[in-house]
Automatic annotation (TrEMBL):
Protein name: Threonine transporter
Domain of life where this protein originates: Bacteria
One Pfam family hit: MC2
Source organism phylogeny: Bacteria, Bacillati, Bacillota, Bacilli, Bacillales
Entries under InterPro entries matching the protein: ABC-3C_MC2 (IPR046904)
Length: 173
């Protein structure tokens, strides 16, 4: 067996790390600037940016349509907070304390920092963040939560009966 000569002994994780999620959050916040957004809305916006076709079938999602992907909204809160904390530690976002709680917004450094990212993925995050802002910024937090509650069961559920079609779950095998 041929060994991969490009391995490392480090436990390196790339996907859904605080860095990745924090950078996406920074791009979303920058597009919404100077508006404030709380953590709940930011988690929802991150989901909608990466899985845009769940909202509009004419838009291609940045991330693949995997089964039960809507669970990301529930489990991503901690990593999003860590990502925001990382961006804050580098003075790339502002934390604003309001009567409604803790909110975040981009600052003057955010746009300059984001301009250094010129990959296709980074450009698409910015484009989808713009689309997101046009599509959802008019909704109140309550209206956005109602929209999510009404639709979350559809996102990823298209795979629910896939095993019945594909087979392979015969316990006698």
């Amino acid at each position: 067996m041929m060994k991969n000569k490009f391995t490392t002994n480090r436990d390196t994780f790339v996907f859904n790390t605080p860095l990745e999620v924090g950078l996406r959050a920074l791009m979303i916040l920058n597009e919404l600037s100077p508006s404030l957004i709380d953590l709940n809305r930011l988690v929802i916006y991150d989901y909608l940016v990466t899985h845009s076709s769940d909202v509009d079938t004419n838009v291609e999602s940045l991330h693949p349509s995997i089964p039960n992907r809507s669970g990301e909204i529930i489990i991503k809160r901690k990593v999003m907070q860590e990502g925001i904390d990382l961006m804050y530690s580098r003075e790339l976002v502002e934390i604003v304390y309001t009567k409604g709680g803790v909110s975040y917004r981009a600052n003057d450094l955010s746009a300059y920092f984001i301009d250094y990212f010129d990959s296709i993925y980074a450009r698409e995050i910015r484009n989808y963040s713009h689309w997101l802002n046009e599509t959802f910024s008019h909704l109140s937090d309550k209206e956005l939560e109602e929209y999510i509650d009404e639709n979350i069961h559809k996102w990823g559920s298209e795979f629910t009966k896939e095993s019945l079609v594909r087979g392979g779950f015969d316990r006698d095998e």
